[in-house]
Amino acid sequence: MSAFDPDQIHVPAGHFIQGRLIPAPADQAQDVLRPSDGHAYASLPMAQADLVDEAVEGAYTAWRGTDWARRPPRERARVLRRWADLVEADAPTLAPLEAVGSTRPVRDALAWDVPFTADGLRFFAEYADKLGGDVAATRTDHLGMTVAEPYGVVGAITPWNFPLVMASWKVGAALAAGNAVVLKPSELTPFSVLRLAELAVQAGVPAGIFNIVQGDGRVAGAALTRHPRIAKMTFTGSTATGAAIMAACAQHGPKPVTLELGGKSPQLVFDDAPDLERLAGVIAGAITGNAGQVCVAGSRLIVQKGIAAALVAAVAKRFAAHRPGATWDPDATLPPIISRAQALRIDAIVQRAVQAGSVSTSGGLRGNVCGTGSYYLPTLIEGVDAGNPAVLEEIFGPVLTVQTFDTEEEGLALAAHPHYGLAAGVHTANINRALRAMRALSAGTVWINRYGRSNDFVIPTGGYHQSGIGKDLGRQAVEANQRLKSVLIDFGMPG
Ligand code: TXE
User: Fold this and answer.
1) Domain presence at residue 154
2) pLDDT at 120 over 60
């Protein structure tokens, strides 16, 4: 029995501009496929530059014309909290809507994506009146201070792997800081955020303050990035697209940009790590969650030789136990890959890895699980050297490479990646070794004896090197949506 009937889901389709859903003329629409079964389930309007211009100009007018940026911050916070409450209460609608068009199993969407989206909005709401600027140390007849102000209209571009959550991080932080937003979601998962926007308006976010334009990245995304009224960009996606966005921000501004990009994150395991069974669950979960389509996926297992064979066997057992299936199948444990193209890309890297001399011990591309959806079974690749494509390239699927080491120094050397530095996991019972590794690892996040985020939104997330610039979440995410005005007052003259 299905958790929901995918053919019975009402899918809002259109752009969202000035507080209203704008359906597109049929000749501007493109079919969107359900990843679970490859079925075309709705049509996506594809914005051209003129519609992006209309949305951005409208957002700017709303930002200037409504009191969103000027109202007392606690009132802004109240609206955002109300929005979070509506999102939470809407889970019976939002979760199937998220699941039907993405790789998020409805069970996870209910238990995690929707509550996490709501809690993220609450977290940012709480910052609305917490970040105001400083008083500077100046001579005593001067008052010097900084005043935090919103940028105006922020442009946000999000990927397909966690459509609601990614949008809430970008939009929540920008709105809490008093900006308006124009969001371009991924063309592969464009619809659930429309419901988010409808709820924002219901909560009292003024029309025009949160807008969505749909379309192709190179057309609508590029037009958004270049638009002169977009004062700041925030992006999550591939490193190549992030670089293109940064170049466009330099040429058409310059304007600041936050980039959360790709990764190839190591899980470094020392042979004193306790509880091998629990550990195997953590290691496997870090690469099979969302079928590995996670920016911080722990895709490289680097394990000390003493426990390597036992740990790899325990991970392989967990891999083999996975059951692929549609996001509405309550018994499935492994969701689909977002698209056929993406699944073939995963397989191509695995094939190249094998040709380069490594051994693929399980898994692989699997068709016909459900219609024409693409599924990739969890795959272990052993015998890889540091130059193997599976070690170097972000695969973005449930593929784990295994490398072994003798000494701490060797383990740390293997954990280093020549380009990426998004996240890393360290597993050891030795606190000194754990902290030495934490210092040595060149990554934006280091998890010790765990892998993955907690629900502590206060911990920022973002990468080193080619994994990004700036932070999502945390106080830093709100600060990134504010600019500082410096003020100097001279009160030394007689009044
Ligand atoms: O990403 P893109 P894709 C990685 C992962 C994956 C690969 C390709 O390795 O296999 O990227 O995925 C918009 N100007 N990640 O092709 O191109 C696009 O419409 C402005 C890691 O989906 O980066 C979409 O909304 N925008 C990642 C968004 O960028 C442009 C999550 C992401 O698309 C644009 C996703 C342009 N020129 C993929 N071109 C993570 N860090 O979590 C595209 N877009």
Assistant:
1) yes
2) yes
